Amino acid sequence: MRSFITLIICMACFLPVRGGAEEIIQKGELLSLQRCIEIGLMKNPTIMAAKGTIGVNESLVGQAKSNYYPQVSWTGGYSRILPVSGRSFTGTQGGTFGTGDQGTSSSSSAFDQYTTSFSLSQLIYDFGKTSTQVQISRLNTDASRSTFENTSEQVILSVKQTYYAVLQAKYNKLVLADTVKQTEQHLEQAKGFYEVGTKPKFDVIKAEVDVSNAKLNLIKAENDFRIAVVNLNNAMGIPDAPDYTLDENLSFEKYGTTFEEALSKAYENRPDLKSIVAQRQAAEVGIDSAKTGYYPLLTGNASYNWAGERIDQMDHGWNVGAVISFPIFSGFLTKYQVQQARANLNVLKANEESLRQTVFLEVQQAYLTLRAAEEAIPTAKLGVGQAQENLDIANGRYAAGVGNPVEVTDAEVSLANARLQYIQALYADKVAQANLEKAMGMR
After folding, report:
1. How remote is the C-alpha of 62 from its chain's centroid?
2. For residues 362-391, average pLDDT
């Protein structure tokens, strides 16, 4: 599953972030949960941002490696030179000062000077400074990859939550539409009884009020459904998606795992935990990198030079050598850089422990919430059956002339609430499963 999701994300890297929604989703298309997740991983902009961060850190690895290679450069120059004229003069004591002949002045005419050179510099040894920087950059890249995985899991969770919210809103709308039909049927029944004189006008007015209330609830449910669709579109990264339908699946299936298994998987799989571990390892290497400021730097260099007053008649020469640079005193800079690196390591160690405790808490909460949701479903289902039976009895009593409209209204409301609670229980179970999978670092 993880490799499949990674393939989807890699494919997304070659697609524009903002493509036409019709290119991704066809109007009227039936979307499964898996299809919605695929779209979210391709189009959600947070995925693109996290992918870009990986590219940044991979480039930093290449930058750190650049010190392993020779540095070659070419320079060329042209100058027009007028030498400073030399003069001599007699001092107050008769002494003569100057650079030219006594009592005379000399000057030279301006001339051109052309220069060009190739130079090469190669790091010979830096006591591990470059190698530690490369290692730090690689660990930071690993951390960014784990952060990318965590971002992907956040997108998947968001898609799952909004997907199930759309299904819940749709089922709620259907329940309330049925309630409107029931109240309208009861209204027709009350009118019929009133017209033949077996029921008072109160029953008709009461039934009309019930119809109005049911229609108001349906209007709200329809708006909730539209909002749920908007949220799903946003989670998928396609706010202007065309109309589509969802594969309806709110069926109950018990999730088979123990708390110990869930916690073990979380410590093993959580990408945010892997990310901070990589950051902590980079900080450990960072201490060694800071210490290299105490050590000398040995480089080799060579150059070949040309110079002359005419570009076609230049003299040439070369030089080869090595330079060792030893930091004798830098104002305690290296000392405080080492202190900073150690303090940064301590911060990351504390953050790692804090995250481990957060992982434990999230898994525990998600697991307990899931178990509670699973226990609530049979009770909610039983409540629907009982409420339906109660409504049948109330309708039968009213039709027989021994019941009253209040009983029927109460029974209709009880049935609607029971059905809504059952849908809520199914939705809560699906979301709890998604939250537990997210807490375990699974997809």
Report:
1. 24
2. 94
Contacts of 319 (CB under 8 A, 6+ apart): 302, 303, 305
What the block records as the tokens of 134 is 């490369």
Residue 166 is encoded by which pair of tokens? 């759309």
Residue where the block lists tokens 């400021």: 293
Rounded Cα–Cα distance for residues 255 and 443 (Å) = 14
Q: 272 with 140: CB under 8 angstroms?
A: no
Is 5 in contact with 152 (CB distance < 8 Å)? yes
CB neighbour class for 269 (10 Å; exposed up to 12, middle 13-18, buried from 19):
middle
Q: Say what the pTM is.
A: 0.80
Kindly report the backbone phi and psi dihedral angles of residue 441, in degrees, each rounded to the nearest multiple of 5, phi listed first.
75, 25
3-state secondary structure of 144: helix
Cα–Cα dist 70/124, whole Å = 10
Given a contact cutoff of 8 angstroms between Cβ atoms, the answer to whether 244 and 27 are in contact is yes
17 pLDDT band, cuts 50/70/90, is: very low
Strand bridging mode 30-31 / 86-90: unpaired
pLDDT for 14 equals 40
Token pair 């010979």: residue = 124
Res 87: pLDDT:
54
Task: Tell me the three state secondary structure of residue 27.
Answer: coil
Residue 306 CB: number of other CB atoms within 10 A? Answer: 15
CA 374 centroid distance within chain:
31
Above 90 in pLDDT, residue 358? yes
Beta bridge partners of 323: 299
Name every residue whose Cβ is closer than 8 Å to that of residue 325 and which is 6 or more positions away in sequence. Answer: 296, 297, 298, 299
Q: How far apart are CA 191 and CA 236, in angstroms?
A: 50
pLDDT category at 250 given cuts 50, 70, 90 is: confident
Which amino acid type is present at position 363? V
Segment 396-422 shows an average pLDDT of 90
Element (H, E) at 246: strand 245-246
Assess whether pLDDT exceeds 60 at residue 16.
no
Q: What is the helix (H) or strand (E) element at residue 188, kind and residue range?
A: helix 129-195
Q: What is the DSSP string of 73-136?
A: EEEEEEEEE-PPPEEEEE-TTS-EEESSSTT-EE----EEEEEEEEEEEEEEE-TTHHHHHHHH
DSSP 398-410: HHHTSS-HHHHHH
User: Which pLDDT belongs to residue 97?
Assistant: 44
